[in-house]
Amino acid sequence: xxxxxxxxxxxxxxxxxxxxxxxxxxxxxxxxxxxxxxxxxxxxxxxxxxxxxxxxxxxxxxxxxxxxxxxxxxxxxxxxxxxxxxxxxxxxxxxxxxxxxxxxxxxxxxxxxxxxxxxxxxxxxxxxxxxxxxxxxxxxxxxxxxxxxxxxxxxxxxxxxxxxxxxxxxxxxxxxxxxxxxxxxxxxxxxxxxxxxxxxxxxxxxxxxxxxxxxxxxxxxxxxxxxxxxxxxxxxxxxxxxxxxxxxxxxxxxxxxxxxxxxxxxxxxxxxxxxxxxxxxxxxxxxxxxxxxxxxxxxxxxxxxxxxxxxxxxxxxxxxxxxxxxxxxxxxxxxxxxxxxxxxxxxxxxxxxxxxxxxxxxxxxxxxxxxxxxxxxxxxxxxxxxxxxxxxxxxxxxxxxxxxxxxxxxxxxxxxxxxxxxxxxxxxxxxxxxxxxxxxxxxxxxxxxxxx
Length: 452
What we know:
Elements: H1 2-6, H2 13-44, H3 50-99, H4 102-106, H5 110-117, H6 119-150, H7 154-201, H8 203-208, H9 212-264, H10 270-292, H11 294-311, E1 333-340, E2 352-359, H12 375-381, E3 390-395, E4 398-399, H13 405-410, H14 426-430, H15 439-448
Antiparallel strand pairs: 1-2, 1-3, 3-4
Helix pairs in contact: 2-3, 2-6, 2-10, 3-6, 5-7, 6-7, 6-10, 6-11, 7-9, 7-11, 9-10
């Protein structure tokens, strides 16, 4: 999953490299500052060398100005990279939605799919920027400060890093539990959006049947479920954050106690201890940033899981490599011993059983029957929105499975049971059936529909 996600960085590799170079430079600057401080306190101040002290201060001022510009680059261009990755992922996901079969949408709710396209990918965008940067800075600071501090005192460095290791171990252990709660929230959030979408879409029907109270009860049920899931998330965030604060404070306490003891024994001096505190504080900053943004990172990771899960779905209705492309259909339709069920399971209800029918080209027929006997199903098998369980559907004597899907469906006109108007103007909706139609053809279609 991570390997596939990393591919989205490739078109924006320049921005990613700039972001990482800036992060590396900031880390090196943070590593240099305690060295300057130690040098000033150990050499320039005791020697009363004010000239070198001011020169060192001037150099640090320039370095901090550079750090300011690098932070701006990370803050702005890093987010631009995240937005571009989000846009690419959203385009791919929408394209995937266009290729998936009817079966996929039979079991999915519109609100849930919309959440995958919007909220989930926004969280992935934030994660794609912050996670690599903070993890990289933390890694550089840990390695760099460890190398520098072992040259001051190996034993004290090992003691301090034992507590830092405890902090990292605790963070990783709590992360797994946090991720589980975020997955639950993602699922329920989709249900909540689906409920809202369904209720608002059918608000006129709700009012016609005076079912406002019933709709409110349904909403409150899922709303309470979402509240409970979010409460579990915040419990984990609370445990994660407070635990990390505890181990950070414990690290500072250990440094104070053991460092004070080492100063007392003259293993190090007070200036070395100050250098330790500076490094620990610089080291903990990216770790604290990771801690504070852990909710965002976990949301991003669970959103990426949702994204990848959909992207891995393969459509069941696919055309053959040598599929037949045809433009001038005669219109002869034949159902030959067709058996069909919506779910290809033994226990699934059989909708059509050994159904046979032949319709000559140009003939008009009507299928009449009770609700649920399969009239709509029959019409959906002709353009191959579903594949038959057994038997065959033929158009002009050729199995629909042998046709190119676009040419087959493009030759079939369908009037849906439920009227649906796409977002846009009336003209744009009329053009949906033939995007290259002229204005005269649009007017003619409107007249035939008696809306002109």
